[in-house]
Amino acid sequence: MTDEENGRDPHRGPSPGQTPREWFAGLLRAHIEERGGGSYEELVVATEQAHLRVAKSTLGDALSGKRTPRLETVQNLVTALHHRQGLPGRPELRDWERDYEHLLDLQSDRRTGTRSAADARAASEGRTWPHRFGPLPEPAHSFLARPALRVPPGPGRFLLTGAGGVGKTQTAAEHVRECLLAGDLDLVVWVTATTREDIVAGLAEAAAELTGSTGPNAELTAARLERWLAGTRRTWCVVLDDLARPQDLEGLWPPHSTNGVTLVTTRRQDAALQARGTVIDLTLFNAHESLACPHLPKPSPTSPTTSVTCPSHSRRQPPSSSTTR
Fold this sequence. Notes:
Blueprint: H1 20-34, H2 40-49, H3 56-64, H4 71-84, H5 94-112, H6 117-124, E1 131-133, E2 156-161, H7 168-181, E3 187-192, H8 196-211, H9 218-231, E4 236-243, E5 260-266, H10 271-274, E6 278-284, H11 287-290, E7 311-316
Parallel strand pairs: 1-3, 2-5, 2-6, 3-4, 4-5
Antiparallel strand pairs: 6-7
């Protein structure tokens, strides 16, 4: 059975007149029928045999849409049905976790309105936009920007690449400060991206406040930020600073949006990563270029060109045949 046949398209959501809980209950009932059906009593026995007992009353509430089940209840029921059919290993629960997250999002939207939980929360706390998450680096005294070669205004996804110390982080920070000063940004999320854990923590913090709720774990909470950014009319910029491993962003990339800019600073030159957006290479000044930079010491004829650390930029568009998501 396909996702369309069993109704498990989380982006479709409830039909007119249907509550989010009723929609999710329909997903559970369709899955039970697909896995052999059964009465409440039979389902309880199946969970007991799998050593994952779910009470009859809990099943009744979940399958009728009367109450929102716990994620653990959903996982236990799906796992018990998997074992009842004699299937090997454990079932794939990722899709159920995503559907459950969408259920929580839908319920949050019903509580706060389409204006977004972030607006409601900001108003209740007396805050106004713009709003920032994460520490924006202070300007470095040695950083020298080239006005003609700054980060494009966007929207879009831009990868600032280059060796350590060429000014990738400072270039991104300068772009953010200028956009804030010009009043062009409502939201800035600055995330240290050296590890998956750092990325998840930074995105989850923003997602929790912007959506007004948290998921069952930090990974799922962080993933909710993508949906919020895709649907908001606020202008935003997400900076993923010092990305060490491109795979650490799997499932966490900010969306392509007419309202948003994503900046990634990294030393990595992976083709798959560079296909994700417009590449801006930051390289060291050579001796000839440094002569045009009045604040830099002029190199002697015998000075190595790598001793000068003012960044220069070149821009490359991602291959049109590659995926950009």
